[in-house]
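ugh ok so i messed up the first submission bc i forgot one of the chains. this is the corrected input, ALL of the components this time, i swear. 600 residues overall. if the numbers dont match what u have on ur side tell me asap before i send this to the collaborators (the ones from the other lab, u know who)
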Amino acid sequence: MVRDAASDDYEKRIRSSFAKQGLMSTLGATLDKVLPGLVEIALRPRSGISQQHGFVHAGALSAIADWAAGYAALSLMPPGTGVLSAEYKINFVAPAIGDRIVARGSVVKAGRTLTLAQAEVFAESGGQEKLIALLTATMVTVEGRDGISD
Amino acid sequence: MVRDAASDDYEKRIRSSFAKQGLMSTLGATLDKVLPGLVEIALRPRSGISQQHGFVHAGALSAIADWAAGYAALSLMPPGTGVLSAEYKINFVAPAIGDRIVARGSVVKAGRTLTLAQAEVFAESGGQEKLIALLTATMVTVEGRDGISD
Amino acid sequence: MVRDAASDDYEKRIRSSFAKQGLMSTLGATLDKVLPGLVEIALRPRSGISQQHGFVHAGALSAIADWAAGYAALSLMPPGTGVLSAEYKINFVAPAIGDRIVARGSVVKAGRTLTLAQAEVFAESGGQEKLIALLTATMVTVEGRDGISD
Amino acid sequence: MVRDAASDDYEKRIRSSFAKQGLMSTLGATLDKVLPGLVEIALRPRSGISQQHGFVHAGALSAIADWAAGYAALSLMPPGTGVLSAEYKINFVAPAIGDRIVARGSVVKAGRTLTLAQAEVFAESGGQEKLIALLTATMVTVEGRDGISD
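and heres the new structure output, hopefully the right one now
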């Protein structure tokens, strides 16, 4: 994915980019927290994002985890840059069942060209959080707004 | 994700499981080919599954790739078993732009407990295919229909 | 890799297993810390484990990281079980240069069949630690001492 | 890892780089084939690269697989460039037992900055090859000989 960085206000940039993401709207995801190097994106379980047993589908979990990691990376970058996922790996450790699913993205190592980011995905039930997935992603810094990598 | 295997007809089992996937319907994905060890799932690019520059979002690509790999694994398993993605890794190598996006899942090594599957994702434009992503996944065999992993 | 668990003393089991690893001896790795769910393995940079610019080679970093993660997983398992790496992913974020390289393995989620473990690899120079690599691994529990997977 | 490309003869560059790798010599690995986009590196099983049950250790497999993938990437690059592994993932699908272990590296997609390469690792026994591991790696192009990434 590509995210722009058109202003020097990282939160405004990230919220503006998020609002243009068709898939996030389709999934019903919300951008719940934007801090430097830390971004949270949440989902409410519902049938349109489920797999056949009613759990939130791995594809929806991956999407919010990848976004949370990517925006966390973007929050530390200068204006005029975007980021793109070169690759990610995600491990699923428990079923995605609960009142709310939240992906918490953070930056492991910020570099000039490549940034290593990760996202933990939690299911919340009755005020308790349980880890359900862990993503690590290699993000590429892209100069300029149309910077889709080769 | 979990996929059931309620009959000994692998294609029927896979088509029936696919039809119950809420997220696949939300994404507009179609199950285009089901052979032993080879499954294709396709998408038509549209705004509801895009990122901000109009390309199909990485999250949607990952979802169809994970499914194609998982159903390819399931096609080789005995009736009464399901599969679950323990983890996957996906590399994105070109932007997802074209008339049609297709994920082609295959089995690298089928094991009793773990199966290594992969999916290549292609963008089709004017009759030409271009590789845009590559996924490798560890699938876990699950006995019985509610076999969500620990 | 497979690691045995022949007694109920996890530290003794792990130290005994480590002592039998031909590659660890070849690399000159040492087992520096064994706690429940936390294991550290270290290396001293030298020419026999270097790449052409004199940094410790990625292959040696991966080996100690995989071991540290695997023994961390094993430390939480009952006697009579072993673990085996089904897969791992490692990101390299800085060159492996320093006085000492240490891989710190920990358990993210312990399951009956699969355990998600990770290892952070640090380079130490003048008393300072710097993160140089991050590994996440899926470990499989193996019953009995010869439990090589399928 | 970093590999130089000091001349326009890719095979000479690769053989020269390989000869300077301390770890390859320690492991007893040999560079058996160098073609454009295809490189093979082999090992003979022996106690110094084993784990405790006598199989070749995962760390040694990863090292030759990472190298084979990296040199395959380098074989397609212009003189004066090197490559570095940003990350790799490896799945182990069968025990590393046999007369000879060979890692066959190839290029999935060559890009200006990033190249996706993979390596299949086979165990040979009595003239038969069996797949034992699969690696996918993101390689970064590095300009100049000391191009260690950020």
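quick check: The first strand of chain A starts at residue 30 and ends at 35. that seems consistent at least. Residues 93 and 105 of chain A are 17 Å apart (CA to CA).
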